[in-house]
Design a protein that fits this description.
CATH superfamily of the largest domain: HUPs
Shape: globular
Strand content: 15-25%
Number of strands: 10
Structural class: alpha/beta
CATH architecture of the largest domain: 3-Layer(aba) Sandwich
Largest sheet: 10 strands, mixed
Number of helices: 9
Radius of gyration: 19 Å
Strand order of the largest sheet: 3-2-1-4-5-10-9-6-7-8
Protein name: Nucleotide-binding universal stress protein, UspA family
Length: 279
């Protein structure tokens, strides 16, 4: 993994998202490209009584810029990004987008290894369902794997591969394995949910576990019985230190998860990074 895109709202940056992406780039030894998306209908005009923020990545308050705590100009946003990258020793590029943001991001994703985006990223003046319309469009059309950021980032201690027996799930697992080879010493769990009374341990699953053991030092298998959506919610609820891997946004089990009500439940009750890719 050599090139990572990070999509940032240039006027309402989330410092947690920037830190998360910078940490991933540091671990991967990758360049981080900050794509600063500006709302073409927004004009930053500070009022005379608006406080002046002298902000640096080293001294910024956790409550100041997390989840769009204040509105900034793009120069301040870029400075925060640069300081965080420099703090982590991460090489970086800057890309300022004033055109059609979704189309530009999709185009850039074609030539990138990974795209990182906040599921709540929005340019609306009102709160949106999660993931936001903007993020949904990126997920549906991105031409590289996408990593959705958590609200509160903690060290990744375990990677959970959600497996439904499909080619899409295997593709996502392989893509993550190749891109995140630096996680080879992390605990990994192959998680399967089935309506049947017992989950089958078939030849395909055995071969997948054998493949994972070629790449990871600690491989485990976990089987759940019941409705996949419900069981996944219960399994991940209140969990920390995990990264979830799923395949083929817009298809099969993951498609059901991203129905409006289910997606809202997932992102509001499960605060974990989520890796998604297309086949």
């Amino acid at each position: 993994m050599e090139k990572i895109l990070l999509v940032i709202n240039a006027h309402k940056p989330d410092v947690q998202v920037i830190r998360f992406a910078s940490d991933i780039a540091k671990d991967a030894g990758s360049k981080l490209t900050g794509v600063f998306v500006e709302n073409v209908y927004f004009e930053y005009i500070p009022s005379s009584d608006e406080p002046v923020y002298e902000v640096s990545a080293a001294t910024i308050s956790e409550s100041t810029l997390i989840k769009g705590g204040i509105i900034t100009d793009i120069d301040l946003c870029i400075r925060i990004f640069k300081e965080q990258c420099e703090k982590n020793g991460v090489s970086y590029e800057l890309y300022q987008d004033k055109g059609e943001p979704i189309q530009e991001i999709i185009f850039e994703s074609r030539f990138s290894d990974l795209l990182i985006i906040d599921p709540a990223l929005s340019f609306q003046n009102k709160e949106e369902d999660l993931p936001s319309h903007f993020t949904r469009e990126v997920l549906l059309h991105a031409e590289c794997p996408v990593l959705l950021t958590p609200g509160r980032f903690e060290e990744i201690k375990e990677v959970v591969f959600c497996y439904d027996g499909s080619a899409s799930a295997v593709f996502a697992i392989k893509q993550f394995t190749y891109l995140f080879s630096f996680y080879n010493n992390k605990k990994v769990t192959l998680l399967e949910v089935d309506h049947k009374k017992a989950v089958e341990y078939n030849d395909s699953k055995k071969k997948l576990i054998d493949l994972l053991r070629c790449h990871f030092s600690s491989v485990h298998s976990k089987d759940l019985k019941g409705n996949p959506e419900e069981e996944l919610f219960k399994y991940f609820f209140n969990k920390t230190g995990m990264l979830i891997v799923m395949g083929a946004y817009g298809r099969s089990m993951l498609s059901n998860l991203f129905k409006k009500s289910a997606a809202e439940l997932l992102f509001r009750m499960v605060d974990l990074p989520l890796f998604i890719t297309h086949i």
